[in-house]
Amino acid sequence: MASRSGIKRVPIKDVLSLLSQRVSVVAVILEYSFPKTTRGTDYCCVLRIVDQSHHETGMAVNLFALTADKLPHVAEAGDVIHLCNVSVRTFDGEYNLVYSKAFSSFALYQGKDSDDLVPYQVSSKYQRTNADGICIHELRKWRVNFQPNDGRHEFRLFKEIKEGDHVNLACKILHFGEVAKDEWFIYVWDGTNAPPNTIRSKLEDEMNCPLPLQLESLALPRDLYCTFPTVGSILRITFDGSIDKSHFHLLDNVKLKWIKLVNMRLEVHAGLWRGLFTPFTKFRYTPAEDNLILTRKRFSDERISRRFEINYLGCVPVPSTVTVVTVDCHCAPHVTLMEALTNNQVTAKFKCVVRVVAALPCQPEMLRSPAGIYRMQLTLEDATARIHAYVFAKDGETLFGGYPDTDSLSKKLNKLLGVTEGGATSDKRHPPWVSVCLESYYLNKDDTWGTRHFRVSSTKVAEEA
């Protein structure tokens, strides 16, 4: 069918026989990326599209424009795009379409099956015929039962990730926003615990270069993180500097939805997992009845609902024998740090399994004041959060078994911190999982939540661990 411009609209399978020609295509967006800058002055983005004729792997579309605003603002993968006057090319043996800023045009339509033919974005040269409208209706009806072929994509669980990998993730977007000026994060979750990381910092650097509690420069407000799941790791995703931010507002369309992300880079910063959204990362169409997503949702829902059934599915790691929790906290169930942080009682007692990743001070001779009173700050982490917890006075006596000599105190502290014998100056540590009792308290009765802190109590480093 020819459009008003005289360019023939064809199904994607016919594009394979039209190399170097110009065509028009109506298709479902299988994958899309955010705009990025080219090596010149243009902006570009990449789509992968499918239709009834070619839906196993789809076809790539490379779009170029003078500004990011002139590129498609895809609200959600699965929407419909009408591409007009695009060129058929090949790259690495694969056919693709190239959108020219000079003569091509496009329109974006919602993908859901409806009679609405009003596009939510159109380029300046776009014109639609009645026949194009019929094609859009037919494509929407086909999309209702379309299940993308994910055969060439392996979607890993968070518990399976490794540093430096580029992976595909099937996860839920919990939140997205600018947490500080030009500091954007996506918060995603799949219900599993990300692996603990080697701590690559020297203990003596904690005073001047402390391990951060989170990747963001400012912590999220309490009323927001109280809406997050308390079981399983929450992965923070930030953005490569070459990605244009003008389309970020579109992420509001997928907030609180389960999605698929393709080619996400995974990094570790200060022992914390970080996803990096690169120019090659894409959102992939995820139907409402996607089989993989339904399986992930069932698993995560069950993990939360059966949370306290004898540590169901390893919500909390099995602790080592390095510490012993005394009798007054012994019978309490283990909770995650996120459960302690979001507890609705300002003052409460919790039993947690954590890693002690930093201590301040870390020199055994400085753990007590000149008056002989213990005072120190520990940095604790589990799969859900990282916090500061303090050790004061009698709690220190309990933790270290009274007032041992400096050598004995050093050995006990090193056990907690994962420092091997002779490795006190090493910048690589693997702290053990230990059971501790935490108590929350406040400093100001006029601002109880704003001055809430945690202390370690009723916990002892075992003599033989």
TrEMBL record:
SMART domains: Telo_bind. It is found in: Chromosome, Telomere. It holds the Pfam family OB_POT1A. Keywords: Chromosome, DNA-binding, Telomere. Gene3D superfamilies: Nucleic acid-binding proteins. InterPro entries: NA-bd_OB-fold (IPR012340), POT1 (IPR028389), POT1A/B-like_OB (IPR057620), Telomer_end-bd_POT1/Cdc13 (IPR011564). Residues 9-144 form the Telomeric single stranded DNA binding POT1/Cdc13 domain. This is Telomeric single stranded DNA binding POT1/Cdc13 domain-containing protein. It comes from Arachis hypogaea (Peanut).
